[in-house]
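General statements about sequence and structure are easier to judge against a single worked case. No coordinates are needed to read the tokens, only the vocabulary itself. The sequence in question and its structure tokens are set out directly beneath this paragraph.
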Amino acid sequence: MTQHGRPAPVPDGAAAPDAWGAERAMNALETLLWRIEADPRFRSTLMTVEILDCVPQWDRMHAAHEWGSRMVPRFRQRVIEPAMGLGSPVWATDPNFDLAYHLRRVCLPPPGTMQQVLELAQTMAMAPFDRARPPWEAMLVEGLAGGQAAYLLKMHHSVTDGIGGIQLLARMHSRSRQRDPHKPQPAPPPADPSTPVTVLGESMQRRAKAGMGALTSWSSAASAWSRRLAAQPRQVLAEAAALGESVARQLRAPAPPSPLLAGRSLSYRYDAHEVPLADFKAAAKAAGGSINDAFLAAVTGAFARYHRACRAKVDELAMSMPINLRKADEPMGGNRIGAARLAGPMDEPSAVRRMQLLHEQVEQARADTAFDLTGAVAPMLALLPAATLAQVFSRMAQGNDVQTSNVPGIAEPVYFAGAQVTHMFPFGPLPGCAAMVTLVSHNGICCIGVNVDPAAVTRQDLFAQCLRAASMRCWRWPVPCRPVPLPPAVGGPRGTQWLPIPPPAESAPCREYLHHDDPIAPA
């Protein structure tokens, strides 16, 4: 058992690796994420940018990664594909694991701004992984203004999803600046002699067992369905029709694609924003919704403002959002997500009403019989050759303009090699979409990472302004805003951030203000 994500102490001599990411074979979704990169537009790279309050000692940082790679063996494992691509890839300990390849350090030239960190991170994220090595890289960035530092962690999406990533960081980060002499010390995992041929044999054995289980399950289900059809024909046929309608909804684009966001390239552009979690919660509560509702409403409002400023008339935004499918007793790590497809109401000026409409859509998506359609078809798609799979996925991704993700983060202070992690900005990939906007709550701060395709969002500075304005409509006080200097290495680009002028002490948040969303003047 663990507390607050920390590995539980074990008796001397009995230290064992952590249970995070212990599965040997990739599931069907992870197989898709790994193989889809036959088309470079669908590279599945997760990036986390952590801001540290001081520069950690390099030897301590190196030791933390060496310990982490023993505590979580996944960090020493590479991917082995079965011979002829028949079956699922497996994770196997890399006999040539070299920590010096995966962990690096750089020093920024003056002035050491957050914008420089983001440019470094986006370049790092765009570079493909060496698929012969474990698919992760890390970098300590020194030279930030104010004596701060940044830590960049790049991982392939096949390793884990957003929730699994937070599970990992919560367990690997400390709750104190001081070294912990009592933490478990597992031995390095032994090299794995697996080859594509032996992996193919494993895959065939798994398929045989799964096939027998599926045959028994299908036989029982068919028998039960036949009995129900004979006893309740109308109800069974109605359920079948409802399932068909649910599948059709999942396959149908939620809204027409925006002509303004039609461009696609291989490039990423990063931006970062922060909002106090307490303000976020208060605004969501005032609107009768959740933090996720407020986040989705803000993203929709930002794109509405961006379209109005660019004189583009689009009423709905084609969006998708991963939803966690984990159960409490499921293993940590890995990927267990479904997808909700949403039509963001950009023609709705009220932030509150947008929250309500999006909340209804998310709840309907969760209730759909075919909600986890991706999980249902993933085993079949995983059988396709990589090139064919990329073509199929390209068609599936058409019309998906924006992806969002809201991941509950770490609620308490954490430290890495003696430095406190003050901010944790998440950046997801662009799987055929124009933008990916991700929120992670970290120790009372909502850290928002924005990844846009510059061929789709051609005016990134304007969109950043739109996102700040829409965020304040949902979260901040109803008063004018002014640009102020940023604290070192925190917030948006170019060293400034739009912050509200504080209200008088006797003022209270104005709920009515949430019901208005005046547009940005067209450029």
